[in-house]
Amino acid sequence: MSAEMMMIDTMREGLFLIVVLVTLIITPSLIVGLIVSVFQAATSINEQTLSFLPRLLITILLLVVAGPWIMQKLVDFTRKIVMDIPGLIG
């Protein structure tokens, strides 16, 4: 495989990894935000912190729970990049 193809594959893998990790972190926060917004609309409560605090807590909880998996994915990708360096150079 040529160096250009290896670089393209690495970039594609990196972008896919970014999308997966960001989706993993953002999606639960969006769902909780939607639930809180529906609750606020139903009860006519317009408190800004009521929307912010649950999203913050769910994001922190998710990072604590999924943190080791996220770090393992990042370490594996970094290790792959370092191992591919000789093939990219020549």
Automatic annotation (TrEMBL):
Q: Which family does it belong to?
A: Belongs to the FliQ/MopD/SpaQ family.
Pfam families hit by this protein: Bac_export_3
On the tree of life, the source organism's domain of life is Bacteria
> What is the designated name of this protein?
Flagellar biosynthetic protein FliQ
Annotated GO biological process:
protein secretion
- State the UniProt keywords alphabetically: Cell membrane, Cell projection, Cilium, Flagellum, Membrane, Transmembrane, Transmembrane helix
InterPro entries per UniProt: Bac_export_3
For whether the record's keyword set contains Repeat, the answer is: no
Positions of transmembrane segments: 15-40, 52-71
- Example of a GO cellular component annotation carried by this entry: plasma membrane
Q: Please report the record's description of how this protein sits within the membrane.
A: Multi-pass membrane protein
User: Does the record carry Acyltransferase as a key word?
Assistant: no
Origin species, per record, is Oleiphilus messinensis
Cellular compartments annotated:
Cell membrane
